[in-house]
Amino acid sequence: xxxxxxxxxxxxxxxxxxxxxxxxxxxxxxxxxxxxxxxxxxxxxxxxxxxxxxxxxxxxxxxxxxxxxxxxxxxxxxxxxxxxxxxxxxxxxxxxxxxxxxxxxxxxxxxxxxxxxxxxxxxxxxxxxxxxxxxxxxxxxxxxxxxxxxxxxxxxxxxxxxxxxxxxxxxxxxxxxxxxxxxxxxxxxxxxxxxxxxxxxxxxxxxxxxxxxxxxxxxxxxxxxxxxxxxxxxxxxxxxxxxxxxxx
Amino acid sequence: xxxxxxxxxxxxxxxxxxxxxxxxxxxxxxxxxxxxxxxxxxxxxxxxxxxxxxxxxxxxxxxxxxxxxxxxxxxxxxxxxxxxxxxxxxxxxxxxxxxxxxxxxxxxxxxxxxxxxxxxxxxxxxxxxxxxxxxxxxxxxxxxxxxxxxxxxxxxxxxxxxxxxxxxxxxxxxxxxxxxxxxxxxxxxxxxxxxxxxxxxxxxxxxxxxxxxxxxxxxxxxxxxxxxxxxxxxxxxxxxxxxxxxxxxxxxxxxxxxxxxxxxxxxxxxxxxxxxxxxxxxxxxxxxxxxxxxxxxxxxxxxxxxxxxxxxxxxxxxxxxxxxxxxxxxxxxxxxxxxxxxxxxxxxxxxxxxxxxxxxxxxxxxxxxxxxxxxxxxxxxxxxxxxxxxxxxxxxxxxxxxxxxxxxxxxxxxxxxxxxxxxxxxxxxxxxxxxxxxxxxxxxxxxxxxxxxxxxxxxxxxxxxxxxxxxxxxx
Lengths: 248, 475
Ligand code: SF4
Fold this sequence. Notes:
Number of strands of chain B: 13
Number of strands of chain A: 9
Number of domains of chain B: 2
Shape of chain A: globular
CATH topology of the largest domain in chain A: Rossmann fold
Radius of gyration of chain A: 17 Å
Helix content of chain B: 40-55%
Number of helices of chain B: 23
CATH topology of the largest domain in chain B: Rossmann fold
Bound molecules: iron/sulfur cluster
CATH class of the largest domain in chain B: Alpha Beta
Number of helices of chain A: 13
Oligomer: heterodimer
Strand content of chain B: 5-15%
């Protein structure tokens, strides 16, 4: 199966290892990978800040970049959810509406693609450790995907999953929100960190790097020894003890 | 009180909220316990999603034909001998109410909680006219006794206070001598209020929904104070926002079900009543019934991109799940309408001059949108506000420039590649032990409380790794 990787600007800029893990897992599952070179960013930061015109440029660029792809798979529930917003944003635009719908229909978040398209829940990963999982708001509520990460994590050998209290509460990242309203965001991430630490887990896993950088950044500042790992990194582990991933 | 409850800057208000452990504790425990109650109450209805869709359809239908239903309501109220008054502005609304009071030579007024009377500053107008006005909703009564402390929640106005604080308000202002148990405090308030009901000349209530084909209003309360306010005094004045209307009892029933479950996690509240001008020969009910329908900016919202905000049935569920409200509390919104719905409607009613920060006080986590029983896309409405605020150039010049630059950068592979090559060494310059410790103004607040990791060094970039691979999956 031919799969176009959407690497997201955050992975490109900050955590290339997540992109690498995603490629390796997908290849192991028999996918043929390509990475359309002109892709950059889904446009979400500017769009969510109210800069509609500035964000449209990024969105159009993405629709063109993936125009010829069969599937587009990205390591971020939030960015994929943004693709799902495109048809609304370009509604009534004769040049772009159809392209927007086409992209929405072939775009999947990484775990979603593995479970829902490839029909796989056991990717043969194994990782010794206790982990808890952070649901990102955009993945669960905007993309509407609540199950696939758990279906995959349950099959990881050696990994024990601990439930996270108040798991539906936002971690306070919210893209530019955390920059614009750092005080409020700081309180939110603080509470989230408390819940993470209370689970007693050594690893915090999520399918969104933004949230992980936010929570991981606060855990690190507080001196908490919890490691953060993107779910692609977890699924790419084979017979290793939790050595932690990026970038705590 | 008016729409605006606090004139200080948004930042000052939030710092205040964040620094108030009493309030935060009260809010977060209320949120946590209401969540389970709401979920159980919702599940007992069957398919909650279908109910929500029905609620949304009813609200949208009514808004679309608002003229028709308001006309029908007016006809039916007048037919039954009641009076209806359409007030375009808040001044018109409170002047009309004052005129009735003056004509009746009324001195004592009891009131059942109503947000819209706050909006039109009615209390102030009536007190200036020399009336004694008593709030009869327990929460509102506590706030009134505490020198009109502003409300902090749509359904539970005194949510920010704990029982010790309430006890001391009662002790100080009313000579209460009992302990701080909620039962004793409520019993005490009830004794005081019962006398007020009996003495009152006029009762003023809000209106959860007006029922168009009946010419009546629907009140939903847990304490029964709405019924007493409407039934005991000779004159009853009900005040409603012009959008709070349903065609018939059937739609009312659906919405009341959604309202009670969403607001307090109950199937229905203790008192659901339908009240209108009393027919001749009836022994109870007021002799004189007035309904004041308040526009105050609502017709500008009607049909605009914010139309869906008018679907709101004021259940407060969006506040009960909002992680921002959880940490800053209701007062930080500076408006009688706090939380997500407040962040949407307050700027519409009060303008961006005073409220341009509110739409940004959200992480867009969409918990509010998810919970809203009438499916208002609250987080999308916040983005719409942001778009308008940006269009009106009300955001900082620096931010606008940054967004413009970022917009270009993030839409072109070539420019982004250049930025990537710059970002890595730059971040190394600003970092210590692999953590970015300094940064431009933009991210300073973030870095104050969190570590920002420097990009991982093991590979130059994801693209470079792809390029180097045999077979060259990258391009
Ligand atoms: S916006 Fe929705 S959830 Fe919030 S108060 Fe209104 S009806 Fe309730």
